[in-house]
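U., I forgot to send this yesterday:
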Amino acid sequence: MRNADTSPLIRRGRKDEAMNLAELHVEVWRATYGDIAPKRAIELLDQAKRLPYWTTAAAETEPGRGVWVADDGANILGVVSIGSSDLSIYQGRAELKHLYVVNGAQGQGLGEKLFEAAITHCKAAGDSGLGLAVVRQNERARGFYKKMGGIEVSSFIDPGPLWRSENILVVWDFSADQPQ
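Result:
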């Protein structure tokens, strides 16, 4: 059901949208990291490289895991993906894998709505918290996550599939008395 104010609908992403999600990922990632990542990493990241991830993530059915999108009825304007982390630094928290909003829709509150959907689904799934890694030089994202209540708890080097980057672990811990 569409909101009366025509705001984009936040809904679960579908497997048949994987190519659109891969394209959105590459577009936003290149715009965000164009001045941060090595040129070779920018060149190597393409839709074909991202498609397997989005195909798998969009097919996820485990509660609190998968993909949610901001959909205006004609286009996907943003996406958030949540998964389990196999890195000990997350200490059992769910991992926010990706949160992207297309450049033309940034500043309209979609990132906040997608992030809030992630928190809601993680809490409903019984997760103890949520964490994410953000590249240290990505000041805009770090500011956003701080605004959303995230706490920067540590840093680590991510060897990454494309480039080694210094990352900050940002966390949100859910207390047992918080409403679900």
